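Feature request, filed as a ticket because there's no other form

It would be nice if the structure record came with a short human-readable summary line next to the tokens. Right now we just get the raw output. Example of a typical job, pasted below so the devs can see what we mean:
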Amino acid sequence: MLPIECKNHRHGFTLLEIIIALVIVLIIFSVVYGTYFAANHSARRCNDKISLAFQARSLLTKIAYQLRSAYLSPDLLNASENISVLSAPDDTPRYFTGCSQSQDGIILHFLTTGGLFNNQLAPHGPFEVAYRYDPSRSCLYYCQQIYPPQSLPEKHPGLNITAQTPDWFPLAQNLSNLELSFYDGIKWHNNWLERKKNNLPQAVKIIITFSNYNASPEIYSTIIYLPCSQNPSALQILGPDK
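Raw output as currently delivered:
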């Protein structure tokens, strides 16, 4: 009977060793899979952040290019040395408007010599451009047309891009927040709608936030100086903290 008991005892040890080996294999597999999953998730987040950063830099570069080329309609300028202030009646359309929030979603609307899309009729401008932000879709739209529009007389051109204009192009997505500030030479304003005269701000501050499902929100900002604004020498004392 003794040899039989030893044989059964040895068989029991063999099953225990198999179970231990399977547990070790499962642990190793779990560690390897967990490492791979974490690395893959980290790579996706990194790629998403790189993509968001590229979108942000591209968007800010485009807006900066157009704002630096902003100007006012020369046929309405007065004869003073101030080339950025319009001498016009109260019912004259404002040739530069901006705000972070508006009822129609249009946050920037102005004249510029720099267009984002080439145009055979006016390759170097002038253009009437507008930016419309839709927070529900996290999307920024852009509209551009020749100035003055062919549908309006040149003597009274006005600005006529509206939210109902059909040619709105999606310029940036994953834009979860957008803030604008306008510098008049003394202080910053949340909008450029209540100016007493049609003039250009000396600088525009833009703060944008990009985010998506795989990446945490990233905030980007810049200050853009407008060369055609009045008193350009005041820009030398303007800093990001003011």
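Something like this underneath would help us a lot:
The chain has a mean pLDDT of 76.
The chain has one helix and ten strands.
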